[in-house]
């Protein structure tokens, strides 16, 4: 749950993602609204349970001044922010419903993180998806492979590609084999299924091998089954098979135990992982290798138990094992996630002292944690260290990477350190690290001043083209948002034309931003023209956009036309149905005009006919209208009703009631 407050707004929203979209439809709304009236467009995000992509992108385009004035947390720009918002959505679904998110939401989050270059987060989401008993699609694996390849990690990309391709190929070879397949061929197919986390397919192949091939399973067969359960998020079944395989006269080996430990680590069950490790140490003729110790370290680090993770790391060193970069990175990232940046830096020092060079994924993971926490100084220090290390051992390049610079630039911008961000961009170019569209999208969203923002945004767009980068829709949308913040809707309209001329089709966000600009300047006819232009290109409006049209009519003092538009809205002529915000905009405008009878009629239509529950802002608008017309009894009835419905009155509820009581000389009621 998130709560946003300003001088004239107090509202509760269901999810943090909605908070980011709260001011999406208007910029500096307080200047255009009558005293005491909360910004009506804010209700769009409040009343909507699901934030659309348009809302999120518009939220990214809010000025830093607005975020500060509204108390909205600074959000990451561009693709990285979109990925974080989707991750917040996924977490919110888990917390609010208590059930695992659906496959589509997982895949959208994986796609967003892949596009943002957040490789470790992609891998984490894929594992999380499998732990939730959701089967990743071929597209999900392809996105991970693409992200790994783009991050300069071709070996890992090839390994994940084999997880996708080898199971099908191996099974095909088994079916086409003219001679009876050998046990090694069955094992090869089962190993591929195991790496892909497909225990059902491993079991079916195992049954086929025993029933038709007349081969007894061996250690490799059972290890494939254990790995399949562990990779599928079923570590308890993986551990069970360690004991069941003994019924076939086969003793588990280090690989068997390590797979189960890794499964419990990914499931966030460090105690179970430690129990398997203890069992492994007691098993005869088995010695825990560094992979088993690394899995145990990861188990404690993922669970946030960094001290125990560091203890497991030290235990590996005491056993004479050489920890790998993955082992150290798990502990360092765990410290960073707890805000213990000095401890994380100490782990990096220990790595280098032990002759293990931090690699690019290690730096990326730590930078990502620092950037999310807004620790710009720590992120800068890590970037400098990465540059000094030549990009990290095995990184395949010198100095920082594009993703590393993007993370630090975004963090600096969110901390209002624009000059340092721009200087870092120049040093990035000087160091031979090529900026990408994410880099420039972050810089375009920077607004040094309302009057200069569009020109400055255009300069960044030109700089992109000089470097041979083609601006995408997101970059153009940032420029449109700058025009909207500067209250230059006509200029935004021109940029729509430039966008199309550049071969980049405007999307819903593009048109929504332009319509919002016209709405803020009370130009409903021009806003409607943009809507017609959008629908002519086959793009359907959403409720948020149509609410902006209602807002534009209200700002232009045309409440009757707004009511007529809402009627069309209800009949389904414009696409999506109205929401609480739609009704609140209209009935609040009618109430301010003194037409409380029609306002009350719309309130009854909303609640009785359409079954939409009014929120606090809706009640406040109607209470203000009745109190202003001297109908204090009706205003008090609404006050009692909102209390019965579990809503908490705020200053915008009590203010009109106090004014009405004072005008009616009802001193006792006022007290």
Characterise this structure.
- The structure is a single chain.
- With 671 residues, the chain is an all-alpha fold.
- It contains 37 helices and two strands.
- It has helices at 16-20, 43-47, 53-60, 64-70, 78-97, 103-115, 119-131, 138-150, 154-176, 183-195, 199-211, 219-231, 235-244, 254-266, 270-282, 290-302, 306-318, 325-337, 341-353, 360-373, 376-388, 402-414, 418-430, 437-444, 453-466, 473-485, 489-501, 508-520, 524-536, 543-555, 559-571, 580-592, 596-609, 616-628, 632-644, 651-663, 667-670; strands at 2-6, 9-13.
- It has a two-stranded antiparallel sheet with strand order 1-2.
- A hairpin with a 2-residue loop joins strand 1 (2-6) and strand 2 (9-13).
- The longest helix has 23 residues, at 154-176.
- The chain is globular and about 90 Å long.
- It starts with a strand and ends with a helix.
- Mean pLDDT is 80; it is low at 1-77 and 393-398.
List strands and helices in order, with pairings:
Layout (H helix, E strand, L loop, with lengths): L1 E5 L2 E5 L2 H5 L22 H5 L5 H8 L3 H7 L7 H20 L5 H13 L3 H13 L6 H13 L3 H23 L6 H13 L3 H13 L7 H13 L3 H10 L9 H13 L3 H13 L7 H13 L3 H13 L6 H13 L3 H13 L6 H14 L2 H13 L13 H13 L3 H13 L6 H8 L8 H14 L6 H13 L3 H13 L6 H13 L3 H13 L6 H13 L3 H13 L8 H13 L3 H14 L6 H13 L3 H13 L6 H13 L3 H4 L1
Antiparallel strand pairs: 1-2
Helix pairs in contact: 3-5, 3-28, 5-6, 6-7, 6-8, 7-8, 8-9, 9-10, 10-11, 10-12, 11-12, 12-13, 12-14, 13-14, 14-15, 14-16, 15-16, 16-17, 16-18, 17-18, 18-19, 18-20, 20-21, 20-22, 21-22, 22-23, 22-24, 24-25, 24-26, 25-26, 26-27, 26-28, 27-28, 28-29, 28-30, 30-31, 30-32, 31-32, 32-33, 32-34, ...
């Amino acid at each position: 749950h998130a709560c946003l407050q300003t001088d004239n707004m107090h509202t509760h929203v269901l999810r943090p993602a909605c908070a980011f979209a709260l001011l999406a439809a208007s910029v500096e709304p307080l200047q255009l609204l009558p005293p005491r009236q909360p910004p009506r467009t804010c209700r769009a995000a409040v009343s909507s349970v699901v934030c659309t992509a348009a809302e999120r992108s518009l939220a990214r385009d809010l000025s830093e001044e607005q975020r500060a004035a509204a108390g909205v947390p600074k959000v990451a720009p561009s693709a990285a922010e979109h990925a974080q918002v989707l991750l917040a959505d996924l977490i919110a679904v888990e917390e609010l419903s208590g059930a695992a998110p659906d496959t589509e939401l997982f895949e959208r989050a994986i796609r967003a993180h892949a596009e943002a270059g957040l490789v470790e987060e992609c891998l984490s989401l894929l594992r999380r998806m499998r732990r939730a008993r959701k089967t990743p699609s071929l597209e999900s694996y392809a996105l991970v492979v693409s992200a790994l390849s783009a991050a300069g990690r071709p070996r890992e990309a090839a390994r994940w590609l084999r997880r996708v391709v080898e199971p099908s190929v191996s099974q095909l070879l088994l079916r086409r084999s003219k001679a009876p397949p050998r046990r090694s061929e069955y094992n090869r197919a089962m190993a591929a299924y195991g790496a892909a986390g497909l225990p059902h397919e491993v079991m079916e192949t195992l049954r086929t091998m025993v029933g038709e091939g007349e081969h007894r399973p061996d250690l490799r067969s059972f290890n494939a089954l254990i790995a399949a359960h562990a990779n599928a998020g079923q570590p308890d079944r993986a551990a069970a098979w360690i004991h069941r395989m003994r019924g076939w006269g086969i003793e588990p080996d280090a690989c068997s135990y390590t797979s189960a430990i890794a499964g419990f680590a990914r499931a966030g069950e460090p105690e179970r992982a430690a129990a398997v490790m203890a069992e492994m140490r007691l098993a005869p003729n088995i010695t825990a290798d560094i992979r088993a110790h690394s899995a145990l370290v990861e188990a404690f680090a993922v669970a946030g138990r960094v001290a125990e993770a560091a203890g497991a790391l030290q235990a590996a060193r005491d056993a004479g094992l050489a920890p790998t970069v993955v082992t150290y990175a798990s502990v360092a990232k765990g410290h960073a996630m707890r805000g213990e940046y000095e401890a994380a830096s100490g782990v990096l020092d220990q790595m280098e002292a032990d002759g293990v060079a931090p690699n690019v994924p290690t730096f990326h993971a730590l930078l990502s944690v620092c950037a999310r926490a807004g620790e710009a100084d720590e992120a800068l220090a890590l970037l400098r260290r990465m540059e000094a290390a030549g990009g990290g051992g095995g990184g395949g390049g010198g100095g920082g990477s594009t993703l590393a610079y993007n993370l630090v630039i975004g963090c600096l911008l969110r901390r209002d350190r624009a000059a340092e961000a721009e200087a870092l961009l120049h040093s990035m170019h000087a160091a031979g690290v090529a900026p990408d569209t994410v880099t420039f999208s972050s810089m375009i969203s920077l607004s040094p001043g309302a009057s200069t923002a569009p020109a400055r945004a255009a300069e960044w767009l030109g700089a992109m083209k000089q470097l041979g980068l083609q601006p995408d829709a997101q970059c153009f949308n940032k420029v449109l948002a700058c025009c909207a913040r500067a209250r230059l809707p006509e200029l935004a309209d021109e940029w729509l034309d430039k966008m199309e001329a550049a071969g980049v089709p405007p999307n819903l966000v593009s048109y929504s931003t332009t319509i919002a600009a016209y709405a803020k300047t009370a130009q409903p006819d021009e806003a409607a023209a943009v809507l017609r232009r959008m629908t002519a290109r086959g793009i359907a409006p959403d409720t948020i956009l149509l609410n902006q049209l209602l807002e534009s009519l209200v700002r232009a003092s045309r409440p009757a036309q707004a009511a007529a538009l809402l009627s069309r809205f209800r009949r389904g002529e414009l696409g999506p149905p109205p929401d609480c915000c739609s009704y609140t905009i209209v009935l609040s405008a009618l109430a301010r005009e003194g037409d409380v009878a029609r306002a009350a009629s719309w309130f009854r239509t909303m609640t009785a006919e359409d079954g939409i529950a009014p929120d606090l802002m809706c009640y406040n608008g109607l209470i203000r209208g009745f109190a202003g017309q001297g109908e204090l009894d009706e205003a008090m009835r609404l006050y009692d009703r909102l209390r019965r419905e579990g809503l908490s009155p705020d200053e915008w509820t009590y203010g009109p009631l106090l004014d009405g009581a004072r005008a009616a000389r009802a001193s006792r009621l006022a007290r």
